[in-house]
Specification:
It is a lipid-anchor; GPI-anchor. It is a single chain. Helix 2 packs antiparallel against helix 3. The chain is elongated. The protein has 414 residues and is an alpha+beta fold. It folds into 3 domains: 88 residues; 219 residues, Mog1/PsbP, alpha/beta/alpha sandwich (Protein Transport Mog1p, Chain A), CATH 3.40.1000.10; 35 residues. The protein contains 15 helices and 12 strands. The strands form 2 sheets. Strands 3-2-1-12-11-10-9-8 form an 8-stranded antiparallel β-sheet. It has a 4-stranded antiparallel β-sheet with strand order 4-5-6-7.
Length: 414
Amino acid sequence: MELSQFIFGYKPITGNNCMVDYCADIYSERLDEGGILIGMNAPYCQVITDYIHCLSETNRPCRGNLRYHTLHTLLHRQEKEFACNSFPETMKPSNYVPSGCIFPVDTAPHTVQRYCALFGSRHLRTLNGRFETCGRNGAFSLVNNKHLLVQITHAYLGSGTSAISKITIIIKENKRCTVRKQYEADSEDERLPNAFSDGSKYVGDSSRKAVEIVFWNQNHVEIVLRHIATRIYVRRHGVYLSVSLRIPERVVEEQTDDEFDICSYGCSRNAAVKMEEALANPKSFMRCHGISIKTPLKTAIERCIRINVMDAFFDACVFDLLISGDERLIAQVYDAQNDITDLYSPYVRHYFTGRQNLTVYDAKAGYKWKQCILDSSMNSRQVASSARLVPSQRYRLLRDMLLLLLVSLVSFSN
């Protein structure tokens, strides 16, 4: 048997976790499809490099597999025999995607889709269609399944409000379709990155990309995951970031109980802002949270009607104007509404009503707000300011707080 037949043709049964047969299959396929001749030429040297890389990815589970070790030795021998170092462009693995990577149709009626978004001052649209406003800062998983992890960080960003300060998107490795890729966006950056953290912009060849970044402009990036029929939008308005995604229901249903995320479960029960009560009586809400109204209610309503946002997006617009007065947040709400209508057709059919008023909440105007400052992070200015103190200032602040605590304890004991 010739070496090439041994490498690319023979397919013995191996252990479930060792991917040596997978590597043999895809590169045999590549030789057949590409019409590549075995010998001293750049295309075949690229095949050898990619084959070696594929095997290296499965070295741990194949440790006791004789075929794995034989292939590894023979490939390195061929690499030397065909002087592949004379083709330096072939020394790094390519982004070849085997035809075994299937791209499912991502539109109805072929695929039932779900939609999640996080925008403005922590407004969340969950996968089951519920709108919430999260009331806690910190790091959270927006989406977490075996294919994808989207992590967000909420922080105080000025204008009296908290919003997304960082987005990290991790595309998990899929043996048939993609290597692990990571994308990061930070509120401190002047523009959204147009590539993954490793500098690449797609996985696959130019005609068949399994994963791809579509750079619309410095404030709008789309990440397409064709192997799971998923699209992610990342937007930037000044320091404010937003993220939305359309994902197949079948992918959502694959999620296990230990893969918690807020797209699936929403904000924790005691960490969500009572939006309807807040909009029914903004003055009481603001007074309890220790913040001042930045835009009068009547002005905020008129502004949100003028930009033509409706329903939950209208509520988010009014709320963000009340607490921040920042037009960049309002632009983000406007784009969030456009994104859901563009990406998720069921929204218009099943959720849209066209409401542009707050009268539906009038019955909740008498809600009694209590201990808001202690219970939430709506007023984050003091926290953010203390975080910027130099060490000596933080030491003095801590010392003064301890002294006050000791005085209080002494007074209480007397």
